[in-house]
Structure formats: structure tokens, C-alpha cells
Amino acid sequence: MLYNGGIGFRIPEYQRQYDWSQDNINRLLCDCLSGFFRLGTSPNADAFTFLGTLILVEEGTNEPDFAGTSVAVVDGQQRLTTLTLLACALTESIRQHAEKLQTLPLDQQVKSWLEAEVDARLEELFVSAIGLQNIRGRKTFPFPRIIRAEDSRGRSKTTSEFRSPLARFLDAFSDYVDRDDVEFVPPALGSGVHAKKLALNYQHIKGLVAGLNDAEWYEDTECEQVSIDDVAREGYKGLFQRLDDLIADMSTRDKALAQVGKTEDCHPLVRTLLFGSYFSNCIVLTRVKTADESAAFDIFDALNTTGEPLTALETLKPRVIAYEKARSGFSGSASEAAIERITAAIDNKYVETSRKQSETKDLVVSFALLLDGTKLPENLAAQRNFLRTRYDKATAISGQRAESFVASLADMAEFRSYYWTHEGIEELARFHSPSTLDQAQLLMSVIRDMKTKLALPILARYWRADLKTNGEADFVNVLKALTAFLMIRRAASGGTSGIDSDFRAIMAPAVGSGSSKKFGLYAGVDHANKLLTIDELKTAFRTLLSSGKYKITGKDGWVGQVVDNPLYQQSRELVRFMMLVAAHQAAPSTAGPGCWDKAGIKISSHTNDFLNFKTWRSELYETVEHVAPDSDRKSGWDSDIYKNNILRHSIGNLCLLPKKENSAIGNDSWSKKRAFYLALTETTPSDQQKRIDEATALGISFSKKTAELLKSGERLSLLDPLRDVDKWTKDVIEARGKNIGNLNWDYLWPWLN
After folding, report:
1. Closest by CA position to 282, among listed 381, 160, 168, 141
2. Does the predicted TM-score (pTM) go above 0.90?
């Protein structure tokens, strides 16, 4: 602890207020949780979480009645404030869990040990947020660790003045710790935006701390939950600071840890205690201190202009070179060729440092899932540790395995460079024959535009550079099955919740059954793990659909879920694809206005070929628009449409138009909109011009781009079913939604069977 615990941080007047976004806070906590998880397998420096540099200036007499040492924070106040609030939230959480300790079915010796751990942890967390200054003799007086320029710490309540929301918060927290209250109720912090931001961020941090013990919370994060089964491992056992003191015998300690593991009701307390200990002992910031504020700013500028840190790949390369030199030489080796391929896929394609950093992090995440089913965060320390430890495992097997490891990493880099970039997708002819090229380009574009990154390791397992002559049919079948799973799953759920966990389940080592089943598609460090057959992979996808949260087992139930989802708000790329599937080689229905019909349509002679790469990239159907307006109900729209907040955003009330074209008539009446659609869909130039004139007379204007498209002979045939709708009603929207859902199921479900 700095200055024997007497340090007090002060945020200078020129610093901005505490305004970190929830994304910033999530990233910081996820970095910490990733290190916490690594502690189970790597109880050394790899498991520490490094959160950057603090630049401090030692001050003189800014707080004349403060007995501690005041330092101004030139850089790092957002992190420091967030960590302080996290210490407060952990304190509150431990108190809440500890309330139940005496009621748990544990031996008294175990309870006494855990009570001692609670006391030790609360003391550590308290001093993170609140300092104690010596007044005289053994008498002390608390002070907030962090204050702002308008605050002043003193040796008593009388000489202390706390005006900022942060100082008021911490002063009240100090009083809370002295009481027996379980819940901390923050004081009135003021009505300003900064006070509200602090209060909201603390509530968010409290929610994140609660999530430590919620397995579902981890599904949509980069973090893994620490299992209580692992508490006996050396790394975690070392976080129990009172275990050796209170239970001296080793076998008795092991029994105590085993009892904790078997007592599920104490898991939240134990996991929170462990993370609290990790927080206090394993989260690291580098301190740079100077007495000269000008020098502090020079240091700040230097640290922020010297470039990005080395990526995980850049730190792996020297290790590969050293190993190959010790074998038979790096020059001319297979590993050198693989590293050159990685360089071509990343360094040569991403000139900007930030883009190269981002792509490298995504690559290592994909590779970790491919290699052994590991859920790896984008945290640099975790990524460096992963590549280093897995490469060392490969070298321990054989030199050939070491070469295979680097070659596999290069394959993933190449796969991403072609199948995950717009430029690369344009070049897929090098891997696909004419008969499959367009479909591969379309489906990869859809997956990419939906930002479904965790689909890549699954596809990469079936991909190879000589795909065109070896395995293309299997790869395309996998691509279709994965696309069908993605669309069916996302259309039912709307959002992405849990879908990353499903993709990880496909890759993870095979264990369990039901909704927790893992399917073992990972390659393994030795690449000895066999591929799932296409039928096995499809079965896995169907199992995840049927046994997961949304219980997708048949057409009718799924269509009902689709109709009842506000898909406009959740995924417009999903809507675009579903619209194209429904219209593909179909004709406007004669039975239901606004709908499509595929019965009796001769595919060979029909012109509505919508499912192709060109259409997906076309400007004609670039944006998703509402038919009945989103919020404006004027001009006689059916009032029933607006009684349900979901209906207007459901797929039955949506259409595809050129970019921003709908803005001209977005809130106008159905009669005007219909005139607009008629003008866009007429089949002959004369009829088209007639409709354009009618629309213009009604006050409708067409964008310059759309006018040029119409003049060149283009027509938006995807809108054809709307021509026959006399009045746009709730019933039309629901029927159209069911129609689109049914046609999508009929088209996509066979890809999974």
C-alpha cells in the first residue's frame, strides 16, 4: 500500500468527470474475471490482471487538515474510480452472502474459517475504498481514497468538506461499513448529470457483481465462471488467506474444501470471497509518480504516443523461432512458411495498427475455440498465455505437432481473410467451383453481416486451401446447415442471447446431455480429434434448437415465435435474408394479399431469383422499412396495429427498399404508400411512368438514385405482393408474418436434415 496506507487520490479540476460507459466497465471487469479464471490453470504471473499505468503527482497543501499524503491523478482516474466502486459492490455482496453462513449445513470449523475469510476480505476491500489516517496515538479517522478538486479531506467531520458526488458516496460508504447494515443505500448525490451517472454506474457494477454467481450471465460474455470444484487447485487455494491459520492439518483442509464444494448454498459466498481476494491481490496497475506536474504530462504524452502493445501473435513468433532454431533451423522450415502466411493475412491486409490489433484478437479467439473449445477473451494477457501454453504442449509432443500448430493458426488467419472480409468473399472463386460459388458468397456475406464471429471455427474445421478439389461438397453442406441454424434460432429469439454459447457447445469437448450437451468438434493441440460427420453436426444443431431455451421442435411453434418478435429492432440483416428466402422463386399469392406462394411455380422458368450474392449486395433491397409507420399513426392507419408494441416491428409489417427511400413517405397514408409501391413495381415503361406521375401528384418524391434505377428499367419485384392489398390492417400483418415464417421454415429446415 502506498505511503503506508495513507495515500489519498485527488482528481484535479482540469480532469473530466467520471463518465465511463457501461461497455468500459464491462470490459474492465471481464479482463479481471479472465485473469481470475486463468488462476485455476496458471497460478503465476499469467493470472494477474494488468490494468495499465497510473500517473500521479505528489501534492503539497491542497488539503491542509489531511494527515495522509494527497496525490493528483493525471491519468487513470476512470479506472481508479471504477475499481473503487467495484470494491464497494464486492463488500456489499460479501456481507449479503455472509448473512446466510450460520444457516448452512457446514461443520462449525468450516464456518469459523469462512467467517475469518469474510472478515479478512471485508478489511481488504474497505481499505481499497477508504483510508485511515492517524490522528493521535492509536486513534484514526477514515477518509475517501478518491476525491475531486472541490472536496477536502480532514481529521474530523467538521474539517472535512465533500461536495462532489464521488466523495459523498465514499463518505457514506465509510459510515455503512461501521454499521451492521447488509445493504448499502447511497446518499443523495445531487441532481446533476454526473451524480446520476455515478449512481447508475454503481447500480450497474452491483449487477455485474451479482452476475459472478449467475451461470447464464456468462453466456453472453467473454468470461468463464470459476467452478467451485476447482477451489482446491493451488491458485485458488492461495486466495484463502486464513485457511492455513485456522485448519492446520492438510487432510482436514482438503476435507473442508470438499465440504464447501458439495454445499451448493455456500457457493455464491465462496466464489465472491475468492474474487474479492483476487481483486485485492492480483489486479495490478503500474504507478508513475513525480513531483512535477509538467513532467507528468510529458510522461502521459509519451505513454500515449509510443504505439500499441505487442499482439499475442507477435509474442508467439520469437518462441517459434527459438524452438525451430534449436531443432534444425527456422529458415526454410514449415513454421517459417506458416508465419509468412499469417503475415500475409494480417500485416499485409491491415495497415492501420488499430485494425491489425482488432483482427489479431478476433483471430486468436477463433483459433482457441477451434483448437480446444476454449472460450478466450480479447484480453492480451489471456491470449498471450493461451498461445504460449498450447504451443509448448505441441512442442512437448513432437516437432511435427509444433509445425502443425503454427500451420493451423495460419489456416485460420487465411480462412478469416477470405471468408470474413468483403474483399475476401469477392475472391472465393479460388476455393469454390462455379456451381457452389454464388451460394458460398451469399451465405458467408449473410453470416458476416450478422456479425456471427463464433460460426467461423465451426466452418474452419471443414475448410482447406484445396477445397475446390477436396471436400467442397461437405463444406457447403456445413455452411448451409449453420446458416439454417442461425436463422431459425435468431428468428425465434430475436436477439443474440445464448447463441454464442450454442456455437461454443458445438466446439467444446463432448460431455453432458440435454441443453448442457457439448459436441466435441474442436481439433485438439495434436489435431487428433476427429471431425463430426455432416449428419452428426446437423443432429447437434437440431439438439441445440430443441433442448435450448426456445424449444424449437416444429414448424407451427417456430412460426408463432417469429410472428411475435419485433425483428426490426433486433436484426435487420436477419429480416433481409428472411424476406429474400420467402420471395425466392415465388409469386404473389392469390389467396392472401401481401403474401407469397411457391406452390405450382416452375423454378426453371420463374424470374424471381432473389437468393444470390448480387441481390444481397444490391442497393435495391438495402434497407428494412416499416409499411405501417413505426410511431406516427396519422392518415387513417388501422388503430389495432398500434395496440401491440411488437406488431408494428414484426416481419409482417416490413419491406425492403433502396437506402432511405421510405423517408419520403414514411408516415403517410396507406393510399399514398400503395401508389409509391405501384410505381416501383410496374412491368412496362408506360405503366411505370403513369404510376410515377400519379405518385408525384399525391406529393410523393423519389430519390435521385431510385429515379435513375426506374429510368434504367429496374423494378422492385420484391414488393409485388403489396400491390394487391386494399387496406393495410392488423390481420394482413399477422397473415403476412406467418406466410414469411412458413416459407422460411420450408426452405431452411431441410438444410438441417
Report:
1. 381
2. no
